[in-house]
Amino acid sequence: MNSTVENSNIWEILKQVPDPEIPAINLVELGVVRAIEKLENKQLRITITPTYTGCPAKKLFEDLIIEELAKHGFNEVEIVSKLNPAWTTDWLSDETKEKLMKEGISPPTIGDKVIMCPICQSTNTKLLSQFGSTPCQSLYSCNDCKEPFNYFKCH
Ligand SMILES: [Zn+2]
User: Fold this and answer.
1) In sequence order, which residues have a C-beta less than 8 Å from that of residue 58 and are 6 or more positions away?
2) How far is ligand 1, taken at its centre, from the CA of residue 73, in Å?
């Protein structure tokens, strides 16, 4: 690998890193990876924003990014966490939201006002538990199809 690798290639590498909690989605799609900077030689600085401020996966995100870049010959990687501006649903593309729905996870909605069932798209849903299958998700139940589902929390 030569040291003049373009930033776009690094974005491609980071697209190989799945979200540890939702493996169908990668960290770039999720909007966790905010910036890539090339420092001297092969040193990289990656800026990440966790999806949820208390997200215990944050350390895991960092480890996975470092591990993936090391596979491509980048051994000096600095990870910077940026909490401001906070992660928002706007950083998810429609395609990514669709993928989440297919995984049975309702993507976050602005202001958490209307939570849509990923199975039947009903908005007639109720909160069962603040914590779903992972701490970054809440467990909801649909009043129409009666199925429980996970809602992806944002901060
Ligand atoms: Zn439903």
Assistant:
1) 48, 50, 81
2) 46
pLDDT tens for each residue of 57-112: 778 889 999 999 999 999 999 999 998 888 887 888 889 988 988 888 887 665 55
Q: Are strands 148-152 and 137-142 parallel, antiparallel or unpaired?
A: antiparallel
- In the chain the domains, ranked by start, together with CATH numbers, are 7-81 (3.30.300.130), 103-152 (no CATH)
Residues with CB under 5 A from ligand 1 (ion): 117, 119-120, 122, 142, 144-145
Tokens at 79, concatenated: 């990870």
33 within 8 A of 49, measured Cβ to Cβ: no
Residues 6+ apart with CB under 8 A from 149: 104, 105, 106, 117, 118, 119, 125, 139, 140, 141, 142
pLDDT, mean of residues 45-65: 83
pTM of the model: 0.78
CA of 72 to the centre of ligand 1 (A): 43
Burial class (CB in 10 A: 0-12, 13-18, 19+), 151: buried
